[in-house]
Amino acid sequence: MISEQLLAQLEKEYGLLLQKVESDIPIQFQAKSSLSLLKDEEDSFYILKRIPPAYFKLSTPGDYFHGLSLFIRQVHAHEIPLVNYLFTQEGAVSLQYQEDYYVIYPYVSAAGYSGALEEVRSTASIHARMNCALKSMDPAEVDFIRRKIKNNFLTDEPLPVLLERVKEKLSSSQKNEVTKKISALVPVVEECLFSFDEKLYHSLPAGVAHKDVWPANILYDQNELKVILDPDEAMYIPRVRDVMYSIWCFSTLTAEGRVTSPDLISANAYLDAYVRAGELTTAEVRFLPEAAIRIWTEDFLHFMLKVNLSRNHIPGLEEKMTYLTDAVAARSAWGF
Questions:
Q1: DSSP H or E segment with residue 127
Q2: What homologous superfamily is domain 117-329 in, according to CATH?
Q3: What is the pTM of this model?
Q4: pLDDT tens readout for residues 271-316
Q5: Are 267 and 244 in contact (CB under 8 A)?
Q6: Nearest CA among 238, 251, 155 for reference residue 202
Q7: Which fold has domain 4-106?
Q8: Closest to 54 measured CA to CA, from 147, 154, 142, 143
Q9: Stretch 113-128: mean pLDDT, rounded?
């Protein structure tokens, strides 16, 4: 609920006289949480986004928003079409209201992902350009993001340690259908930990990345990328993880939001377009199938540690399990 007090603070911080729009938020934004549609006196529209408290579990709000502003400025300086988060009159990228933090940006009129290969290639090309732009970031700024910006679902904790914590949680939880499903998948997770070279993974090129380039975060105009949304998870990670996550999402998510097994045509279209516009070493390309397994192993373990296992149904659990088993099954099929 947008209060009059919050609108007054927006006017003070941004110089914008805004009001809440009562109509539904546009369809391409409906997958997003914590969004509100506002408009000013000239009927220009804005999206107000509340940043979830989970973002501040491992980084302070001050460090988080400073890192975010560094990322945004670097990408915009290279004319990459990233969403235009507005800076306050004091130069901050967010405002605090009561216990919550918000960012605001002009509403972009464009279409969501349709599944067209032209959109896959366009996204990969801009993604590569963005990563090239981030390679030229000031080393001191890169170091700040590397040290200070941490993601609650990408901790530095070793994966075997995470697995042991999941096992302990399962053993101390009351048995139900959910814990049975998870327990049955534990041997698969254990095998996954031996299916990739963790030392090699951490030796591959790393840098600041958007980290969340996937269909729900891209808007298009005539099958060409118009704007990249949600840079809120930008952080320092191995490049192979950043790229493989996008390849995975664009090859497994349909325009309707359904999850499918990886489509190899879309996967290879993304990789080819990325390499044409950017850079991946031979070692990175060879590691991509293992990166997919590692991504969903890590994601599954963190998810398990955060959910309440006493519930009879956990939203998202089936999807996490499917991603992990599909990544294992697709390892030899990618053709990279």
A1: helix 117-135
A2: Aminoglycoside phosphotransferase (APH), C-terminal lobe (3.90.1200.10)
A3: 0.93
A4: 999 999 999 999 999 999 999 999 999 999 999 998 888 887 788 8
A5: no
A6: 238
A7: Phosphorylase Kinase; domain 1 (3.30.200)
A8: 154
A9: 97
